[in-house]
Amino acid sequence: MARSTAEDAGRRRQERIESRLPVLKTVEVLLPVALDRPLTYAVPEGLDIVPGDLVVVPLGTRPTVGVVWDGEGAAVDAAKLKPLSGKVDAAGFSKPMRSFIDWVAVYTLAPRGQVLRMALRGLAEDPGPPQPRIGLRATGVAPKRLTPAREKALAAASDGVVRSKKALSEAAGVSTSVLDGLVAEGALQPAPLPPPPPPRQPDPDLPGPELSVEQAASARALREAVAARAFSVTLLDGVTGSGKTEVYCEAVAEALSAGRQALILAPEIALTIPFLDRFAKRFGARPAVWHASVGEKGRAAVRAGVADGSVRAVVAARSGLFLPFKDLALIVVDEEHDAAYKQEDGVAYNARDMAVVRARIEDAAVVLASATPSIETRVNVERGRYDKLALPARFGGRAMPAVQAIDMRRVGPPRGSWLAPAMVHAVTETLAAGQQALLFLNRRGYAPLTLCRRCGHRMKCPNCSAWLVEHRFRASLVCHHCGHSAPTPKTCPACAAEDALVGCGPGVERIRDEAAERFLGARISILSSDVMGAGERLKAELEAIERGEIDIVVGTQMVTKGHHFPNLTFVGAIDADFALGAADPRAAERTFQMLQQVTGRAGRGEKPGRALIQTHDPDHAVIRALVAGDREGFYRAETASREAAMMPPFGRLAGIVISAPTKEAAEAHGRALARIAPKVEGVRVLGPAEAPLAMVRGRARVRLLAQSVRDFDMPGFLRDWLGAAPPARGGVRIAVDVDPQSFM
Ligand SMILES: Nc1ncnc2c1ncn2[C@@H]1O[C@H](COP(=O)(O)OP(=O)(O)OP(=O)(O)O)[C@@H](O)[C@H]1O
Ligand SMILES: [Zn+2]
């Protein structure tokens, strides 16, 4: 049977060859659209095309850039196919890069084209070959009339150097219209400007800081891992302020010395900013930067440089993982535990995990750095899959901050305020000593809930099952799930009472107001993504804090990690509990990590630090471990309870969210899916159940959860299952999330 099919195919191919002359070659082209399979195109005669080439093809009516994928073109009549329009003049996708895209698609169940789209970012904006820039040069011809301004201009140009119009007008101190006049009279003449000097390359031979004995040992091990030119993963597990950055920079130096490339991933754009300067201090030049706030031109330049090998070091947000490196030697995943590495929409991938996959395909080294490693990574170390290097003490013999809990049930703040007396006292002392304090609350805006004092009406998002968050800074009520935003009304929309709407609970803006009232004259800064953005403003603010121009920093999780403010000695966590109860198997781990990171900002300079944590549950294991400084104890207990519950990494999870215009439709489809779930040993399917966020953007949501033993092909199971699913009609949509981080 199989034999005759093969023979048939062979015969068909033969017929094709005989019936058409000349035979056109066909190729498979993967396109950046929601298709899993490449499409087949004919190759025009004379065009030399190999897998990995970037090509332009007609797709519908639009020319689209795609990538020639592996495999023979299908055995179809090439003459009936559309031919591809041409090759793009850019470095193609290497075989490892193509394998990586295939791998991510298979694992996440995203269509391959959708993964490709991430890897083509920065290409569409390619500015093309640089236009020659034109400047001005003196010709030696004397103008008819010589004014003092003209004299100045000609004197400045007398050296014969070609300068841009702007540069010449500045050098001479005359307006550009003077120069135009001289051009008109032939005394100045347009001429091509010399090309700008190439950007300075980071120099790995510059001396780094003198490392401590432990740091040096770790640095040596990481250098060896990079030099081995083989796949490896190393957890760099060092307490806050132990100098992990200095240590992994040595691994970067090793990659650069070999003329190869390094990628440093950071979970937040805010963290890339101080890193640029630290990198420049170490290597004499800044690395390339890749994230959403980099403009189109900048992105195109980074992408091109990464592909041709001229860009050696890139610091990037998670999407940098899909850049087409020419010779990738090292990926550093800084703050590897961070949930921001997980992309929730579109292709649901975890950049930390996919960094390991990419490194395996490219024979590269991975460094996972964290003061609070994920349980997943720790277990991989215990199983011998990853290596581990430990930095158990802060650099320079500095002490870890002393951490205490404030029991909000007994010694909490007076009604209507959020800072407990002990917190106020500690901040006052800190300011009196000329030091900085950080108040941490992981809630943006002013108040998480607004209600009417008269009728009790609560301000809800019209599109989501969520409260609107008051942002006083923007004078509006905002939904943090869909972005809906409207001016804060003067009257209650339900009972029309005037001035009856009140904010309940605190966000960072409210803490800022309270701090301003309590600590008169203190210079206070709010660090929160919606207030600061991610650009120059944030950079300036971080620098002002570092220089000591700010007394109190009030911030969301944006400030919890990575930053190094030497004069900051006190950290107060306003509400340690709010994440503890969440319907999330990682709730305890996450809370521990967040609080350990934020308290770790205290006392990183000469002066010792301390931290206070406001909690309603001081006996909770997380709080007790933080106060006792018993990191290992917490991890042991948490790992054991995860194992008992068969939760990751001891079991696998996948979430399926079904959304639809109505709750009934979502539920019906959820039930239909659950009914046809394959009965396989070692896996069970839970749900459908209404999602905690039951409505987002006007769409009702229900969830299914698949839970399996550890050694189980979850993507394969999901593919079989969903492949047999009834078609999603009536606006039903299905989103699959393998290894979910969010359970909302
Ligand atoms: N060997 C060294 N010589 C001089 N300074 C050092 C050295 N090691 C670390 N430092 C300094 O100590 C501070 C803390 O180091 P770093 O920021 O690398 O710590 P970290 O382990 O990354 O901390 P966190 O996990 O909290 O981000 C930095 O200012 C760094 O420059
Ligand atoms: Zn909303």
UniProtKB/TrEMBL annotation:
Zn(2+) 2 binds at C461, C464, C479, C482. Gene3D superfamilies: P-loop containing nucleotide triphosphate hydrolases, PriA, 3(prime) DNA-binding domain. Its cofactor is Zn(2+). PROSITE patterns: HELICASE_ATP_BIND_1. Residues 225-391 form the Helicase ATP-binding domain. Initiates the restart of stalled replication forks, which reloads the replicative helicase on sites other than the origin of replication. Recognizes and binds to abandoned replication forks and remodels them to uncover a helicase loading site. Promotes assembly of the primosome at these replication forks. This is Replication restart protein PriA.
